[in-house]
Model the fold of this input.
Amino acid sequence: MSKGFKILSIETSCDETSCAVVVDGRVCLSNIVSSQIDIHTRFGGVVPEVASRNHITAIDNVVKLALIEAKLELKDIDAIAVTYGAGLIGSLLVGVSYAKGLAYATCKPLIAVNHIYGHIAGNYLTYPKLEPPFICLLVSGGHTAIIKVQDYNHHEIIGNTLDDAVGECFDKVARVLGLGYPGGPKVSKLAENGQANIQFTKPNDTLGYNFSFSGKKTAVINYVHKLEQAGKPLPKEDICASFETWVVDELVEKTTRACIDCGYDKIVVAGGVSANTRLRKELMEKAKENNISCFVPKFEYCTDNAAMIGSAAYYAYQDGVGLADMSLAPKPSLSL
Ligand code: KG4
Ligand code: ZN
Done:
């Protein structure tokens, strides 16, 4: 691939319509994100049908804006990339159809990208010199996993959630506390002013590198319901701080142990929950104690965005694994 390879990337897997222009997988020229959070807030979560309809309305302008901000025209672009899974079927369909149309009309290569590879690549944009191998802690609304990233396109999941994802758990705790959607940032904000002084259940972890969050979620919900039934006030700040600390401690401990056991010296965090301040701070500290370097993405590359897809697309195309044709279809349950 010649130097200066420009990819126009599209991401519509959930409720963000996004388009970016990324050069050589590392330099982001533009990254337009049109979020639907305000639309879904009143429903308390993402409504898939509403999300896909809003992607259709937004996508054309988002793509045009990405080109304008990058000061480029379509003719300057070398390839088109798109997230084809995992995600909501209707939402993915909008991005995949649009990208296929664009690639066909302009006779440019089409690159299909796994959303999770994108989240990992958010770190390649943040740290231009970062290279595999490393241990990745993936924490998003749909996934929680410890991944051994041997190379750009070779990954092995060594720890996984057995039930809920950590972001989902933050969202549900926020809901029971009446904080609204999306819950993660709201729980995190309240936790700043609280004390981690509540033990919801007795610790009993026999899961190795795996996680289970549904028990934690239920423990918090039961705690809240008991107080409500007794007519007592909810110490929301302390509940948030205790829950957040409980979850973060486990993520930090298992990720660090996995890194040491694998003989690696780098930990990389990816996914929406990587925006969590406590997680970033605790993991940095624990890694430092163990002579491990810790990398966290810039905030704009934590939650869903197309720039991370453009970076992952570059490495997929380079390794000859991402090239797609007009038969490309969305894969809602695509795994790593
Ligand atoms: O990666 P992402 O944008 O979407 C998926 O691919 O799932 O992650 C969204 C998740 C949501 O569950 C949201 O509550 C959570 O990331 N999140 C946070 C924070 N910011 C976003 N969780 C905890 N603390 C945060 N600051
Ligand atoms: Zn995501």
User: Anything to note?
Assistant: Residues 132 and 151 are 5 Å apart (CA to CA). DSSP finds ten helices and eleven strands in the chain. Residues 236-262 form the longest helix (27 residues).
